[in-house]
Specification:
Length: 450
């Protein structure tokens, strides 16, 4: 229920903001707006404003739409002809069309600005000892290194690290990473990710190159057991302290993780303490896929003392002006990165499995809503950028397609013929339908394969 509600709220906000952008600029250009609807389908309630616009609430709460006076869509009364969309100058029509996507981008800026002004709790970019043979290991990263910059771009938190590895690594697979150790010594590491698809949607790019979050040593005490997991079926309970596995002493939680990962579908004999009572259980880890290998998982998480992580977190807060600058830069970076990834899809340099559809978006909407208001606002801003950029693509049926027609009209002095627009609509419909099919296929593949 949370997922469906979060998805409806996300889609509703983004589409209404998009359409409201069209509405405001249309009114400013003197176009008569016949209806502004919240939602689609049958109208549940409506009110006619003094300017002739009908404000409507429709049955399907997934967005909304704006209907303008336009001779191409039906007969227009003589007194309304000066206010018809098609009678406006090409510049005004372009402004009305571009207002929708720009409203989404503006919304993203405002949401990021609000987050940066209010302050957000972040994870410091501290890395764990990388797995041998990974690019991070070859670059010489050590346990506890703090990443401070990538190719001269400053890294303030773990999200910055994730984003900058994507941003720089996709363009140039050899990056210069600045790190600081516990003694505040600065080192520069050459991180080479050649041959690794960082944009692969099915895998964490940082994990693929060996950059994992640093975790302090945790005692081998079970804190949580996942329902339906091997740990639950074996009888493992929160509070159990693992002492040995197959006779091997377990000192910290990571000792157990290493053995479990190396033992998919292999029985393990665990000696543990439960309420000071010694007991033994046999547990067989389930096989799971991680990157290009099969590992064992039992479905148990460690007991975590919040005080252990206090030193790993920081609160980032900016003044209004600095927050606006950061919000603009973030929105610009995400927009250009989205365009670059779309370009790579077209020329075959990025996999089509990176395309996500409504099922994945709904899933992330639900997860972010459950994580709290800050996570949901950040998710809303990200999707708003994606929607704005997508609608600016020069594909017929999208706002960018209409902009392309008007740009041609601006240069030639003649509107694009109805015949060419009709052909363009068919091409655009085919492209969008193909895109949606790929997106849905990827969605359900991720859903079924986990």
């Amino acid at each position: 229920m949370t997922t469906l509600l979060a998805f409806a709220v996300t889609l509703g906000i983004l589409v209404v903001i998009h359409e409201f952008g069209h509405f405001l600029v249309a009114r400013a250009c003197g176009v008569k707006v016949l209806r502004f609807s919240l939602g689609f389908g049958p109208v549940i309630a409506k009110r006619l404003a003094s300017n002739g616009t009908e404000w409507a609430l429709s049955a399907i709460p997934l967005g909304g739409y704006v209907k303008m006076t336009d001779e191409r869509e039906g007969e227009v009364a003589a007194e309304d002809l000066p206010h018809a969309f098609n009678r406006k100058s090409v510049g005004q029509r372009m402004a009305i069309v571009v207002a929708g996507p720009l409203s989404n981008l503006l919304l993203a800026v405002l949401l990021y600005w609000a987050l940066f002004v209010a302050g957000i709790t972040v994870l410091k970019p501290i890395v764990a000892a990388p797995t041998g043979g990974t690019p991070a290991a070859l670059a010489g990263f050590h346990n506890g290194d703090v990443v401070t910059a990538i190719d001269n771009d400053p890294v303030a938190d773990w999200q910055d690290l994730y984003w900058l590895v994507l941003k720089h690594g996709i363009k140039n697979p050899v990056m210069t990473v600045e790190t600081r150790d516990a003694a505040n010594h600065i080192e520069y590491r050459r991180l080479d990710v050649t041959g690794i698809d960082l944009a692969d949607a099915d895998h964490d790019p940082l994990a693929r190159i060996g950059l994992m979050r640093y975790l302090p040593d945790l005692p081998p005490v079970v804190g949580q057991v996942v329902a339906g997991s091997r740990a639950e079926s074996t009888g493992l309970k929160p509070g159990d302290r693992i002492q040995t596995i197959n006779g091997q002493a377990i000192v910290v939680w990571e000792d157990m993780v290493k053995i479990v990962k190396a033992s998919p579908e292999k029985p393990l004999r665990l000696a543990l303490l439960r309420s000071d009572k010694a007991m033994t259980v046999t547990l067989t880890p389930a096989a799971a896929h991680e990157l290009d290998r099969t590992i064992g998982r039992i479905g148990a998480a460690p007991h975590v003392d919040p005080a252990l992580f206090a030193s790993m977190q920081a609160e980032i807060r900016f003044g209004p002006a600095a927050a606006m600058k950061r919000a603009l830069v973030k929105t610009w970076d995400l927009s250009t990165f989205s365009l670059e990834m779309m370009g790579r899809l077209v020329i075959g340099q990025a996999s089509l499995k990176n395309i996500s559809g409504p099922v994945t978006i709904a899933d992330y909407a639900g997860r972010s809503a459950e994580a709290g208001i800050t996570a949901f606002i950040a998710f809303l801003a990200l999707i708003s950028v994606s929607l704005g950029v997508l609608n600016l693509l020069p594909i017929p049926l999208l706002d960018g397609g209409h902009l392309l027609y008007y740009f041609v009209e601006l240069i030639t002095g003649q509107p694009v013929s109805d015949r060419i627009q009709g052909v363009g609509q068919k091409i655009g419909m085919a492209l969008l339908a193909t895109l949606m099919l790929f997106a849905l296929f990827n969605d359900f593949h991720r859903l079924l394969t986990g």
